[in-house]
Amino acid sequence: MRYISTRGNAPVLDFENVTLAGLAADGGLYLPERWPTLSRDEIASLAGLSYVDTAVAVMAPFVGDSLSREELRALCAEAYGRFDHAAVTPLVQLDGRNWLLELFHGPTLAFKDVALQLLGLLFERFLRNRDTHLTVVGATSGDTGSAAIDALAGRAKVDIFMLHPQGRVSDVQRRQMTTVLAPNVHNIAIDGSFDDAQALVKAMFADRDFAGKFSLSAVNSINWARLMAQVVYYFYAAVRLGAPDRPVAFSVPTGNFGDVFAGYVAQRMGLPIARLIVATNVNDILHRALSAGDYSVGGVTPTAAPSMDIQVSSNFERLLFDLHGRDGAALAAAMQGFETSRSMSLAPAMREEAGGLFTSARIDPDAMSLAMRSASETACMLIDPHTAIGLAAAKATDLPADVPVVTLATAHPAKFRDAVERATGQRPLLPKRLGGLFEREERFAQLPAEIGPIEAYIAERAIPTG
């Protein structure tokens, strides 16, 4: 398996090197040179397998020769052994056709754990025999930061520098990052939005003078290995609802398009997905792009679903690559225009092609609160604001009556206690393993959203190459 850049002008890499690289040197995103497929019989054989065995079967084609199946299985067993549910990502039925796929049973209570627990182990495994110290830089709208820090804290040969938008993450999300005092963990609060933080990370990779001094890597969903790990739970859920003999729809609350793109990969691999519902909040660039072809950047509106308060969806570039016929030069020109004008129009043919699988919905704050209240009153379940947006979008989408709809429950409700309590009157409790979170010391730096001060901060603390 070889990996190519969406912009067509970066080295072709194997799985090990693409995992350590993160962002491509030409500013593009890596993805497989070809989509591997599983046959109908191979998908059917996943029924009844454990999550670990399902993960090995789904991910092995992407790993290629970089790991043996035995090595991959050992890493998966270690990663998912830290989850507090034996099923890792259990399915819960809400009503006659709606299901929740609970992705929040990992150490930091969010779906990012599913990928990042494995990614941390992959970094450690691939660095074992290298004379290299990795400098991981990332941006977070809340959950990626805490999950990445938990996965990498204290690991040898890795330092992590995580940028988050000051005052725009929940108190639980912030403290899950800033109370980890391991010497290789560095939190940076910037005066700006998540989009600003994400742009700064990309700028650091593009700055040859800076990037040339360190072995930079990424934990955001620009890193292919993260998306690969997220493909697994689409297969795991679908076979439990009848795949491959029965198509399944998924509703995915998303801002950066990574989680829903993993569903696209599953479909390309042969999983019968009836529909991928892209659920956005009022920061609706993805809804506008898919429904009207308007991929233009607006202002970021802070909401009670902060992980979706995004206007530049990095992983959308991976879908655009396929919609451009996998023509890296054409996409590079389109992205250069977008980065200059902050606007792009999707041609009708592209919208039609995407519309065969994707649909989208824009959920406002009232509909989000109503979904939280409805889940509480009708199913005795507390759900977080992001999951509520996914559930509202699922119920607003017209699908055949015999198609089950799985909403990805992306975070534990206790990560957004205030919003859940406002909607339902009930204040969710933090699990015992997070006990004492609000008594722990916090440590982080506050910096302007400017490349100079941030690069200087990292350069003083990171270990250079050579």
Automatic annotation (TrEMBL):
BP GO terms, sorted: threonine biosynthetic process
Entry similarity comment: Belongs to the threonine synthase family.
Organism the protein comes from: Alterirhizorhabdus solaris
Domain called Tryptophan synthase beta chain-like PALP: residue spans: 85-329
EC number(s) per entry: 4.2.3.1
Residue positions, PTM N6-(pyridoxal phosphate)lysine: K112
Pathway given in the UniProt record: Amino-acid biosynthesis; L-threonine biosynthesis; L-threonine from L-aspartate: step 5/5
EC class name: lyase
CDD domains in UniProt: Thr-synth_2
Domain named Threonine synthase N-terminal: residues: 2-80
Keyword annotations from UniProtKB, A to Z: Amino-acid biosynthesis, Lyase, Pyridoxal phosphate, Threonine biosynthesis
Molecular function GO terms recorded: pyridoxal phosphate binding; threonine synthase activity
Protein's UniProt name: Threonine synthase
Pfam annotation, one family: THR4_C
Reaction equations catalysed: O-phospho-L-homoserine + H2O = L-threonine + phosphate
